[in-house]
Amino acid sequence: MTYMPRIEVALAVVSIMLSQSISNIAWDQTAGVTSGKSKTSKCNRATFRVILDVGHTAEEPGAISARGVTEYDFNLRLTKRVERKLVEAGFSKTLALVTGGSAISGLVQRVAIANKSKANLFLSIHHDSVPDFLLEDWEYEGKQYHFSDRFKGHSIFVSYENSKRNASMLFGKLLGKQLKVRGLKYTPHYTEAIMRNRRRELLDADVGVYRFDKLYVLRAIQMPAVLLEAGLIINRDEELLLNTEERQSLIAAAVLDAVENYCESQSPRIPTPLADTLRGR
Questions:
Q1: Given this model, what pLDDT does residue 14 score?
Q2: Which of 22, 120, 171, 248 lies deepest, with the highest CB count within 10 Å?
Q3: What pTM was estimated for this model as a whole?
Q4: Rounded mean pLDDT of 242-264?
Q5: 3-state secondary structure the chain
Q6: With contact defined as beta carbons under 8 Å apart, do 127 and 73 qualify?
């Protein structure tokens, strides 16, 4: 994610259970997490469509990493890995959304395409930086670059102006939980005073879900929408980790499990007949 307040101004102009059964299968509607996979789960992976939005464009590539790689390059590679993971798991309608042009044009394009698709879920994939006043200079392979090792970790954003606010929050929490169980930590720096006007309200301190109402790609999407900042590529150590297949695969697995859990939460749940339940005990 880059910090360009002029784009936010311009976009403002452009914008237009089942209770617990005898078999102890529990459904937590608040967190949207199953405590055990039910045999009667009705997540239809073949029809459930996920839009994976590649943040930024080749022409407007977003942030620049500590070693001079564009955010767009990181976003594209991670999105492709997530897409492959979902498709291999049976979510065959998954679509990786790549747009071109200027920052504003790219955002308007992706919102229009996503809304036309009538997908079930929208996930925008980004990699983070810091405001310019926090950057430091260093030399890498004979060239001058900027870095900031002050913060590290991922962050998840939802908009309360999204028409599917509650569902967006549900998926954000599910994704945060899956990242957490894999040992990945979110960054709390968006709550700190040093972020000035870029501070965000932390909605879930356990799994790192933040509120960002005016983020166009979240509020204009007509489906549950979440933005993932996979990590800080301006941090020299974290940049190296985010560039590895291991970290990308870990994030992709977290997304898959979160999508599966969300899909199950939105699907009809058919009670298991009492006789069948007793026979299986």
A1: 41
A2: 171
A3: 0.83
A4: 98
A5: CCCCHHHHHHHHHHCCCCCCCCCCCCEECCCCEECCCCCCCCCCCCCCCEEEEECCCCCCCCCECCCCCEHHHHHHHHHHHHHHHHHHCCCCCCEEECCCCCHHHHHHHHHHHHHHHCCCEEEEEEEECCCHHHCEEEEECCEEEEECCCCCCEEEEECCCCCCHHHHHHHHHHHHHHHHHCCCCECCHHHCHHHHHHCCEEEECCCCEEECCCCHHHHCCCCCEEEEEEEECCCHHHHHHHCCHHHHHHHHHHHHHHHHHHHHHHCCCCCCCHHHHHHCC
A6: no
Per-residue pLDDT tens digits for 121-154:
999 999 999 999 999 999 999 999 999 999 999 9
> Which of 173 and 270 is assigned the larger pLDDT?
173
What's the token pair of residue 211? 């509120």
Whether the CB-CB separation of 130 and 150 falls below 8 Å is answered with yes
Integer Cα distance of 58 and 34 in angstroms: 39
Residue type, 266: Q
pLDDT digits (tens, 9 = 90+) for 5-63: 444 434 443 443 333 332 333 333 333 444 344 445 689 999 999 999 999 999 999 99
Say if residues 239 and 66 touch (Cβ distance below 8 Å): yes
Fold for 45-274, please state it: Aminopeptidase (3.40.630)
For tokens 């504003």, name the residue.
Answer: 104
Q: In this structure, what token pair is assigned to residue 207?
A: 């799994």
Specify the pLDDT at position 9: 37
Query: Which of 125, 131, 19, 2 is CA-nearest to residue 64?
Result: 2
Alpha-carbon distance 79 to 43, whole Å?
22
First to last CA, the chain: 51
